[in-house]
């Protein structure tokens, strides 16, 4: 990653957003900090101060956004496969977080989106 006058936060966001679906599951705050050659605590502190959201929360939002996209666009993928693809080994925990973000379980979300496509 090339550093110009980009802020540390911009570089962290760029690192997250440029990961493929296969790579995003392995992205952690520690990995981002290592890539940017700063400590995890420093990166987390700067990110929270500049973006008013923790880096961990930002990363989780991005993973949930990608999960939502998979639910809509890849009807053959199971919830278990999807959760593993974005970095969650515990499908129940993934479903809990998804419901926290979207107010509905991943399975019901997929069903509702399918119905709305054909309505």
Short recap of the structure:
With about 120 residues, the protein is mostly helical.
Question: How would you describe what is shown here?
Answer:
The longest helix is centred in the middle third of the chain and has 19 residues, at 55-73. The chain has one domain (8-118): Orthogonal Bundle (Arc Repressor Mutant, subunit A). It has 119 residues and is mainly α. The protein contains eight helices and no strands. The radius of gyration is 16 Å and the shape is elongated. Helix content is 71%, strand content 0%.
Write the layout of secondary structure elements.
Elements: H1 8-17, H2 21-24, H3 29-36, H4 40-51, H5 55-73, H6 79-85, H7 91-102, H8 106-118
Q: Gyration radius, to the nearest Å?
A: 16 Å
Number of domains: 1
What structural class do you assign from the helix and strand content? mainly alpha
Q: Count every helix, treating DSSP H or I runs of 4 or more residues as helices.
A: 8
Please identify the top-level CATH class: Mainly Alpha
**Helical residues, percent:** over 70%
- Portion of residues in beta strands equals under 5%
> Which CATH-level-2 architecture?
Orthogonal Bundle
Which segments are poorly predicted (pLDDT under 50) over 5 or more consecutive residues?
none
Q: What do the pLDDT scores average to?
A: 90
The total of beta strands comes to 0
Short descriptors:
119 residues; 8 helices; 0% strand; mainly alpha; Arc Repressor Mutant, subunit A
């Amino acid at each position: 990653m090339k550093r110009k006058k980009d802020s540390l936060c911009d570089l962290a966001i760029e690192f997250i957003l440029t990961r493929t679906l296969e790579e995003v599951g392995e992205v952690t705050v520690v990995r981002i900090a290592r890539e940017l050659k700063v400590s995890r605590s420093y990166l987390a502190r700067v990110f929270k101060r500049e973006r008013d959201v923790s880096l961990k929360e930002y990363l989780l939002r991005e993973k949930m956004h990608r999960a939502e996209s998979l639910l809509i666009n890849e009807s053959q993928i199971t919830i278990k496969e999807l959760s593993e693809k974005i970095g969650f080994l515990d499908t129940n925990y993934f479903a809990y977080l998804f419901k926290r973000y979207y107010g509905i379980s991943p399975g019901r979300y997929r069903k509702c989106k399918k119905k709305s496509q054909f309505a």
